Amino acid sequence: MSGEEKSAPSNFIRQIVDQDLASGKHSAIHTRFPPEPNGYLHIGHAKSIVLNFGIAEDYRGLCNLRFDDTNPQKENVEYVEAIQKDVRWLGYDWDGRLFFASDYFEQLYQFAVELIEKGKAFVCELDYERMRDYRGTLKEPGKNSPYRDRPIAENLDLFQRMRAGEFPDGARVLRARIDMASPNINLRDPVLYRIRHGVVHHQTGAAWCLYPMYDYTHPISDALEGITHSLCTLEFEDHRPFYDWVLDNISIGCHPRQIEFSRLNLEYTVMSKRKLTQLVSEGHVEGWDDPRMPTIAGLRRRGFTPAAIRDFCHRIGITKAENRVEMSVLENCIREDLDAQAPRRMAVLRPLKLVIENYPEGRIEALEVANHPKDEAQGMRKVTMGREIYIDRADFTEVAPNKQWKRLVTGGEVRLRGSYVIRCEAVVKDAQGEIIELRCSYDPATLNANPEGRKVKGVIHWVCAATGVRAEVRLYDRLFTHPTPDAVSGSDFTYLINPASLEVLTDCLVEAALAEATPETPFQFEREGYFTRDPKALGLVFNRTVTLRDSWAKLEQQP
RNA sequence: UGGGGCGUGGCCAAGUGGUUAAGGCACCGGAUUUUGAUUCCGGCAUUCGUAGGUUCGACUCCUACCGCCCCAGCCA
Known about the structure:
This protein is 25% helix and 23% strand. It is α/β, with parallel strands linked by helices.
């Protein structure tokens, strides 16, 4: 791999952990990663995973994986399984501490009974509309529900009958009894339980028709698991008073501290689960693991490594500031990792036939070429050379466009990577005037040696016609044409999808050594970028993970 | 004057009263190079949203103002 993994930089949450350890508030740290199984994990989740599991790792603490499965209407097992797979792939292990909020349904119910007994919760019969009206607005206080002062015994009876299934969906709800005039809307008697008949929960089946709300479930789940630091994103900051209220009003001997940090936003992609789901369901992409998706599964299929993703999560930091990270940061992470480890190979994406006229007919040479320019341990491989080879169309032009051009040109010389120096003697065109073949000569004295009396600047890659293998190559570009597609409200953001986000090249020619490539093994196709074999396609198909940095492309833009 | 947050270079982000205001990405030079890659050197905020104030000294403390984000699901 790419050597030692850099340690995670500190951040304000780690500083709080340091203080809690130093003050003796805690002697051990326990975090948790709590996804809702209603979609695949994305790079934003990776930020949270690396934070939570990373802290546990560095402080020799524990991190649980817990599914926040309180809304059976949106959740399913496919996601439960995919999420576990992705967390493992990222390099983390919950050591058997896999939990579901639904594991706690009975306890949650009993705590609700306790709240009722203490006069801290009541059964409300207001319908959706009226409940909204009673809630007030951001600037005006709400009004007490007419059911708010129901006798405890009646609440107890009603709540038990809600569980027993005596009421239809929406007819009754259990609410906390806090303060309808609170300036914090989350404290205006929030709903604790709602009724949902006829849905089969992926974990509890049909055992319940009563489901707890996230705000009520989360603090209790955390406390039950002995979590010390409950890390979540900024939008839950307003909910923290309620998180604390729940734990302060039930008999539970643990009170985790909730700390909020900002979500990750990445340029040219979307991160909201709703939008990602829409991309999949409407067929804008091939699926959750489409290599253009910012999902863990997509990045994996694209050829990203867990180490690069972890590195990225470290580089972007943890703060409370809104942010929108540039793609180049992610790209730099994967390039850095792959440059160090990926064996080099040659692949011609847009083939142009080239015949070396003074090269003996029928002769095939096996040349030894280094697998890596700096890592000798990667050894050498055999690459065959013959009279007919293919080079990339972009590496030849009849007349050099400028003095900086260092590829092949009519009458000019260029080095074939790991092979000889050749000179273009003539160009063959078809009836339409399109170049279909190059006639060249080679200098036999230039194998592993520089030519005498002249210097050849350019080096291009090539593939032997006799042994090269056909392959399909998929080139990916950013999924959106706009840096902040998330800023577009509603569901019409799809018009910002980049029509050129996927380019499929079906006539590529790759060196023979690539025929047995396996998925998730990275290769650098010299002068092109990093590629890995697609795990789903039937034939020999490669996905481009990322291009090489290309300072020539920048020069070309200029006059 | 509803409540809760945030504002350090193009993008992230250190900094927690005494420093020349870290680092990464990006960008701009230049060297090396059988990948226009990598690597290597060098450059890149007299200034920390703005304006005042406290202090011998402020990005760090105080005040006011400005800007941006979140909250009125029986979603999470």
